[in-house]
Amino acid sequence: GDSVTQMEGPVTLSEEAFLTINCTYTATGYPSLFWYVQYPGEGLQLLLKATKADDKGSNKGFEATYRKETTSFHLEKGSVQVSDSAVYFCALTGAGRRALTFGSGTRLQVQP
Amino acid sequence: DAGVIQSPRHEVTEMGQEVTLRCKPISGHDYLFWYRQTMMRGLELLIYFNNNVPIDDSGMPEDRFSAKMPNASFSTLKIQPSEPRDSAVYFCASSLSERQPQHFGDGTRLSIL
Q1: Predicted pLDDT at B97
Q2: What is the mean pLDDT, run by run of 10 residues, along chain A of 112 residues?
């Protein structure tokens, strides 16, 4: 079945540092790929998405590119802020399944 | 626009009691999903509906769990009888169509004592 693998956390960075959170996936066909963010005590919010190979999703300074050749969708941000501290989930919807398959989540802690 | 609304936000009850979680999806959304989040298993799908019809309930743990969607604006997830291992955060999400992103509610934090 479909699966998503994320790098283990927590990731601890200083403010203005560069962020990369790795995500790779296994799926048949051409899945849609997503990054969701969860702040403490809240639900998940869609951060960005990409629906086909080589698409780049971007939002709030975050970017991720759909790489079919490496089955990856790594999240990047050039300069993180304390307010970016949260848990980030990589997810996909497969060709035949409308529900999201999530990675285990990566906690990001940004220190001032 | 109102997002996905879940109630209650928190529920604490004793094992053996019936628990009912409620969800109001975003108006016009055809898909509704129930997920459960635990430390051990992460986020996992329980069941989802399309146009009020259950499509995939393979994630429902056992017969103690049931979900209904009597109309396009309301869904319930019921646990009867509840057990301590059911303690988790339960999320409801909805989407406009099968290729559109899912929008999540704030979740119900359930504690079974």
Answers
A1: 83
A2: 90 97 92 94 92 95 96 97 96 82 95 95
CA distance B25 to A60: 26
- Residue whose tokens read 């004592």: B113
CB contact at 8 A, B16 and A78: no
CA angle B87, B52, B36 (to 5 degrees): 15
Tens digits of residue pLDDT in B40-71: 999 999 999 999 999 999 899 889 999 999 99
CB atoms within 10 A of CB B84: 10
The distance in angstroms from the start CA to the end CA of chain A is 41
Q: CA dihedral defined by B63, B69, B74, B79, rounded to 10 degrees? A: -10
- At position B67, the amino acid (one-letter code) is A
Chain B residues in contact with chain A using a Cβ-Cβ cutoff of 8 Å: 4, 31, 33, 35, 42-45, 48, 50, 55-56, 91, 93, 95, 98-99, 101-107
CB pairs under 8 A between A and B: 51
Q: Rounded CA gap, A52 and A37, in Å? A: 21
